[in-house]
Design brief:
Layout lengths: L15 H7 L3 E6 L2 E6 L4 H8 L7 H16 L2
Antiparallel strand pairs: 1-2
């Protein structure tokens, strides 16, 4: 993609191709060996609904399944 640098006010300009592909808003996440930029959807709730549209269980059912799996893995 190329390199970029911070300006004198600490701003980073992303290449046009990235802005067009991922948008203009990002979360900056500090990881062990650098910084990761994660695009933020224009409507985060709609993005979550789309992501989990094929899940046919309720949150309670998912939570209970995770709890059971955790206990099984712990040998209880």
């Amino acid at each position: 993609m190329g390199s970029t640098s911070l300006d004198d006010r600490g701003r980073l300009t992303l290449p046009k191709e990235l802005r067009e592909r991922y948008g203009d808003r990002y979360y900056a996440i500090d990881i062990d060996d650098g910084v990761k930029l994660v695009p933020v959807a224009e409507d985060p709730l709609a993005a979550l609904r789309d992501e989990f549209a094929d899940v046919d269980k309720s949150a309670d059912e998912l939570r209970d399944g995770a709890r059971t799996a955790m206990l099984d893995e712990a040998g209880e």
